[in-house]
Amino acid sequence: MKKVALIIAEKVFRDEEYQVPKEVFEHAGMKVVTVSTTTDTAVGKLGMEVKPDKLITDIQAVDFDAVVFVGGGGAKQYFDDPTAHALALDTLQQNKILGAICIAPVILANAGVLRGKRATVFPDGEDNLKDGDAHYTGKPVEKDGSIITGNGPDAAEEFAVTIVQALQ
Hints:
The protein is α/β, with parallel strands linked by helices. The protein has one domain: 3-Layer(aba) Sandwich (Rossmann fold), CATH 3.40.50.880. It is 30% helix and 25% strand. The chain has helices at residues 15-27, 82-93, 105-111, 126-131, 156-167; strands spanning 3-7, 11-13, 31-36, 42-44, 49-50, 54-55, 66-69, 97-101, 118-119, 135-136, 141-144, 147-150. The strands form 3 sheets. It has a 7-stranded mixed β-sheet, with helices on both faces. The protein has a 3-stranded mixed β-sheet with strand order 2-4-5. It has a two-stranded parallel sheet with strand order 9-10. It starts with a strand and ends with a helix.
């Protein structure tokens, strides 16, 4: 059984970008582990309440087939987070799938993993991706090697399906 870590912010994660991929992954027979900086209830932008399974400081890329950062304004808490950056780097070093949707690709750009890669992001993150030497495409979903990015809630299903396909 494939395992996916879905990393959400404590507050203001984007509900659909968590819920839709979670449902797609589970429908594909994958185990989803919800990760955050708290194991207390995390609250989405639209009011969804989620109790994370694990702390981001307690997971390692080697234990998952994919590590996915969920967007929403709260994802900014990971923009300069050394633990999130180390996890992103380790995910790629372990030859695992690394995903990020909405504004969360900025985390990947700031971690230095998008250099020379095609990527997309919510429009207000375009400059951050370019600053990280990514090739911003503006597409709803972009896959470059084992990195998959999505540009927002409308792309949540396509983003999740692309990750499932990459894991098959």
